[in-house]
């Protein structure tokens, strides 16, 4: 852009260093942990956490319906989440369609559904599909949907296990859980009748988008990864195991036995207050769109439902939060005809170097790395105008045959 808010990221050092990066046999490099990997303190800490989570969940499944209906520890329900989503989407200026898409039997014996919001479906341009990140839903794109749909169809979905999509039991195996995500997305595509589309994913959604493109390359015309999680391998420094006291190992394993957002659900009726207190940044990001508190209500209700997708995400990470099967080297096998654009926030905690390594390991393919100045991890919300302008231009360049971008 002329105002200099967005810049193209250049590598540190000589680009040839990236040409010699070997492509590892990534499946064999990350063995699944077994009990022998853990000390007694770690094992019993993790076991206690599982027991604490098991009994309340079992109680609510077995207790009479009238009891569970009368007493809600967390003040939420599917209906309240639908109401919160409706209030968020009411700020759109363009008409939209919100629906449940039946994707059939994906993770269990009953049909699953994907929540979808679509805009400008009648445009003949290539559609763009938006995948949100962890602990979010389609409502987080509220500041982007109007602009991105100005000239092309836009579809934003709740990933399976998140938002208002079905929350089936995922496999506890990392690869199988990943497979369930990209298969559910493919079944969704088949159900709504999309042929080819631009696929954009943020954070964890970027990981799923990359996985989908690897398995269904004929469907993806452009892959856009926005501050993607799960690209790099765990650094060697994180692999070192310190000689900690047994009680420290016990406490560490105990806390890691819980799902990531268990504390919000455990807080019960004070959960909404905690979200307002610890995510007050959302008021600043979304304050310009109607009632600024509606996005906080939406995020809260998204994350106190049954933690299906949350559990799947945990299965796909190691104890430190790194992807068990990182995507950086796997993308070397992506069809070279598929262009990739990576978008980072200059103030984000996500490391940008893996994006550059992808760029210089795919020399026969178009890979572009862009940085939006002043944006954090949630690039689309921190700098929505700059983000929308960049994404629209990238999509237009694809259709006009212009694959190379200089500083913008």
UniProtKB/TrEMBL annotation:
<dbReference type="InterPro" id="IPR000639">
    <property type="entry name" value="Epox_hydrolase-like"/>
</dbReference>
<dbReference type="GO" id="GO:0006654">
    <property type="term" value="P:phosphatidic acid biosynthetic process"/>
</dbReference>
<dbReference type="GO" id="GO:0055088">
    <property type="term" value="P:lipid homeostasis"/>
</dbReference>
<dbReference type="GO" id="GO:0042171">
    <property type="term" value="F:lysophosphatidic acid acyltransferase activity"/>
</dbReference>
<dbReference type="GO" id="GO:0005739">
    <property type="term" value="C:mitochondrion"/>
</dbReference>
<dbReference type="GO" id="GO:0052689">
    <property type="term" value="F:carboxylic ester hydrolase activity"/>
</dbReference>
<comment type="similarity">
    <text>Belongs to the peptidase S33 family. ABHD4/ABHD5 subfamily.</text>
</comment>
<feature type="domain" description="AB hydrolase-1">
    <location>
        <begin position="127"/>
        <end position="384"/>
    </location>
</feature>
<dbReference type="GO" id="GO:0005811">
    <property type="term" value="C:lipid droplet"/>
</dbReference>
<dbReference type="InterPro" id="IPR029058">
    <property type="entry name" value="AB_hydrolase_fold"/>
</dbReference>
<protein>
    <submittedName>
        <fullName>Protein ABHD4</fullName>
    </submittedName>
</protein>
<dbReference type="Pfam" id="PF00561">
    <property type="entry name" value="Abhydrolase_1"/>
</dbReference>
<dbReference type="InterPro" id="IPR000073">
    <property type="entry name" value="AB_hydrolase_1"/>
</dbReference>
